[in-house]
Design a protein that fits this description.
The chain is mainly α. Helices cover 61% and strands 2% of the residues. The chain is built from 9 helices and 2 strands; from the N terminus they run H-H-H-H-H-H-H-H-H-E-E. Strands 1-2 form a two-stranded antiparallel sheet.
């Protein structure tokens, strides 16, 4: 729990940069309407800090914490209990690779299913369009259908921004792992940044099923992720126990 919270100060900014670069595509992309046009990762970081402030690197931080910290706590709680059951059943501390994979994958999968409502509302909040952005997108789509545009390099030059100006984005950037918990066609616009208000609105309009939209793909993703991570963790831990980094004078070892 605490480790994931500490790591969030590093992975949230990196996910913001990654997401913006993915939305942009290549530099001077004539087909992109994302509003971003960065030359590289370093240029993206510098531009964001200069134009929007350092805090812009942490867009979506609160929503990510609300989902990831409960997931990590549940994942390790399930894993420790399942490891105990597996060791009692095997009668040994070494339970073998199949059980290592099973305990790790099932722990992550169950944690992913339980926290699916938080993932759904987080994704909806971070990807919903405001009315102005939606109307602009609709106008662009209509124009594109009515009049095909031949792609020309640098057709949309990078906008010049005064050093003192600040450009605000119109929606939060998702900082999560791949998610399929997008809203179905016709779903209500949450129009809120509150996790709890979003959960209430989804329940009122879609019921319990709305909270668990995309639960199947999320179960598969978290199972594979946790199974791989926890198996490698146990393998590395055994290696360190067999080959300790520090040996004290009385012969005891310190990993």
């Amino acid at each position: 729990f605490l480790a994931d919270f500490a790591a969030s100060f590093v992975y949230v900014p990196s996910e913001v940069l990654k997401t913006r670069l993915q939305l942009q595509g290549r530099y001077n992309n004539p087909f992109s309407y994302s509003g971003y046009n960065y030359r590289s990762t370093v240029d993206a970081a510098r531009t964001i800090v200069r134009q929007e402030g350092f805090s812009a690197l942490f867009y979506g931080y609160k929503a990510t914490i609300f989902r990831d910290l409960p997931f990590s706590a549940l994942q390790f709680a399930f894993y420790e209990q399942e490891q105990k059951w597996a060791r009692d059943w095997a009668g040994s501390r070494d339970i073998g690779l199949p059980l290592e994979i099973l305990t790790g994958a099932s722990a992550g999968g169950m944690a992913g299913v339980i926290t699916c409502p938080l993932d759904v509302v987080k994704t909806r909040i971070q990807t919903q369009l405001n009315p102005l952005e939606a109307s602009v997108s609709s106008t662009r789509t209509s124009d594109a259908r009515a009049k095909p545009v031949k792609p020309i390099h640098n057709r949309f030059p990078r906008p010049s921004v005064a050093p003192s100006s600040t450009r605000k984005q119109t929606r939060l950037i998702s900082t999560s792992s791949p998610s399929t918990s997008i809203a179905k066609p016709g779903s209500v616009n949450l129009d809120t940044s509150s996790i709890f208000t979003g959960l209430k609105l989804i329940y009122k309009t879609e019921g319990i099923a709305g909270w668990f939209r995309g639960v199947g793909p999320r179960f598969v993703w978290t199972s594979v992720q946790s199974g791989t991570m926890l198996v490698l963790y146990q393998a590395l831990l055994r290696q360190l126990e067999q080959h300790p980094l520090v040996v004290t004078d009385d012969g005891s070892t310190i990993i």
